[in-house]
Amino acid sequence: LSMWSAVPAGPPDPILGISEAFKADKDPRRINLGVGAYRDENGKPYVLNAVKKAEEKITAAKLDKEYLPITGLAGFTNNAAKLAYGANSVPRNQNAIAVTQSISGTGALRIGGAFLARHYPHSKTIYVPSPTWGNHIPLFKDSGLEVKFYRYFDKKTVGLDFEGLKEDLKNAPEGAIVLLHACAHNPTGVDPTQSQWKEISNIVAEKKLFPFFDMAYQGFASGSTDYDAFAVRYFVSQGHQIALSQSFAKNMGLYGERVGAFSLTTADEEERKRVDSQLKIIVRPMYSNPPLHGAHIANTILSDPELYKEWEGEVKGMADRIINMRERLYQLLNKEFQTPGEWSHVKSQIGMFSFTGLNTEQCKALAEKAHIYMTMDGRISMAGLNGSNIEYFAQSVDAAVR
Ligand code: PLP
After folding, report:
1. Residue 109 CA, closest ligand 1 atom number
2. Which strand (E) or helix (H) includes residue 320?
3. Nearest CA-CA partner of 200 in 168, 153, 155
4. Which residue has the higher pLDDT, 36 or 131?
């Protein structure tokens, strides 16, 4: 008898399952709207020019392959914090941001979860939006936190349930941790407005909640890295201490390189050093130290003014292409096909994803009849749409809802 004969088969990952069904479908019209990775106008993965040029510089510099320190490449973490908090951030100028490189956004969230489970004095409960990125839930549970939900999405308006959100945060126990998507909420594509963020900040202050920002899409939502950092910077300006997860997967297209950062704002440099020492104690037994290559790429882009400029243009290019697809899809559904239903949310939502409002049955019909693959909650990756397939997609949605 094998040691593992009693191990039950786990459910397949819902998103990777979609990619497999897509690969098995040989119809030329097939479209994969499941995976959250950018595709160019030809439906192909996109390596940014800024990344290619940074790699050329790195190759020319003939760097060695020595280990990085436990918290990663110092130039990179410093530049990552500058990108998120802004060049003039008060805690940054006071040397009071504790930051470590991480295995992309997922690893940053995991380090954050572990740090809070071990050192946050007021609660072991984290409130996440309903719905949220599916991985948040097992990730925080495995970090040692209890996961609860606050209302976020209103099915009726296909928009933000702001009253529900406020009520749930007001009713959360004092001191609880609250996970906030900094921009481009996944999976809904619905973000609070700036004035709503201000109200959320007030509730977080009143209830002494601890804000943990997940910023996986800085620049990818609006096209501007400053605009997308509004919530993070506003909370810091209001005197909140925050935790922050950053990912360079989407905004630099570095998905498989696994480049990210986790940071905490602290009271002063002395406290920051103590927190840093504990971040090292969390990271060391998990993976010793982070990978080198992607951090060099991101750091080269962030520290070279010309590459930085080129990168900013390319981030904006990706965001703009998605925004154009939203506009086009809205025009097709609302005007050309006069598809039953209200479709303005397609336009008002932001970032990689759109919650279409399609139900499970309609999603299944799209897969079976039209070879169009998306998650069964009706979420589509806007980046999977382009000039060649968007009409077919809209036509198929039209058929599915009639
Ligand atoms: N957080 C959110 C909300 C995401 O959508 C993602 C990726 O889809 C991540 C974090 C982490 O991604 P990665 O680990 O690839 O940086």
Report:
1. 10
2. helix 305-330
3. 168
4. 131
Compute and round to an integer the Cα radius of gyration of the chain.
21
Is the shortest distance between the CB of 186 and ligand 1 below 6 Å? yes
* Distance, CA of 95 to CA of 113 (rounded, Å): 23
User: How far is the C-alpha of 390 from the C-alpha of 388, rounded, in Å?
Assistant: 6
pLDDT reported for residue 302? 98
Tell me the per-residue pLDDT of 314-362, one tens digit each, with 9 for 90 and over: 999 999 999 999 999 999 999 999 999 989 999 999 999 999 999 999 9
Tokens representing 219 are: 């620049």
Burial class from Cβ neighbours inside 10 Å (0-12, 13-18, 19+) for residue 240 reads: middle
The sign of the CA dihedral 13, 325, 80, 182 is: negative
Altogether, the residues listed in the chain come to a count of 402
User: What is the chain's percent helix, strand, coil content, to nearest 5?
Assistant: 50, 15, 35
So which residues are the catalytic ones? Answer: 133, 214, 250
Indicate whether this model's pTM tops 0.80. yes
Q: What is the model's pLDDT at position 12?
A: 79
- ipTM for the predicted complex comes to 0.99
